[in-house]
Amino acid sequence: MNATRTLAAAVLAGSALLTGCASTSSQPYNDGYNSGYNNNVSMGYGTIESIQATQGANRTSGAGAILGGVVGALAGNQVGSGSGRTAATVAGGVAGAAIGNNVERNRNAGGQEQYQINVRMDNGEYRAVSQDSVYDLRVGNRVRIVDGRVYRY
C-alpha cells in the first residue's frame, strides 16, 4: 500500500512538472535574432481575395489526459481487492485519461473563432494569414501584412 502511494505521488509530481513546461502559445520563440528570412516577421502589400471564418485549433497538450489518468487510477485503486482492484485501477486510469483530455479540449476551444484571410500579394504570390479578428477588413481591400497580421492601408 505504501509503494502504491509513493508511486502515485511520484507520477503526480512528474505530471505537475511537465504541465509547467507546456506552452499554449502558437507564436514561435523569438530570441531577438533575425536570421534574415522568417515568414512571421515579413512585410508585404496586397489585396484581400477572401476571408473565411474557421474554428480555432482544438489541440491538447496531453496534460489533461495525464492528470485525468492519474486521478482515475487513484480512484479506481480504492475499489475492491486483489485482481479486482488491479482491474479497477486500470479502468479508472483509462476513463480518467479520456475525461481529462476532453476537459482540456473543451477548455481550450472556448469559442475561439479564427479568420483565414487569403491575400494576393503585389508580387503575385498568395498568402493565407490566420488571425483572431478582421475588424474593418473586407474582400478587395488593399492591405499590408506585418508580423503575420493583416492591416488596411
TrEMBL record:
Keywords: Membrane, Signal. Residues 1-24 form the signal peptide. It holds the Pfam family Rick_17kDa_Anti. Its main location: membrane. It is found in: Membrane. The keyword Phosphoprotein does not apply. The keyword Signal applies. Residues 63-104 form the Glycine zipper 2TM domain. One of its GO terms (cellular component) is outer membrane. This is Glycine zipper 2TM domain-containing protein. It comes from Telluria aromaticivorans. The lineage of its organism: Bacteria, Pseudomonadati, Pseudomonadota, Betaproteobacteria, Burkholderiales.
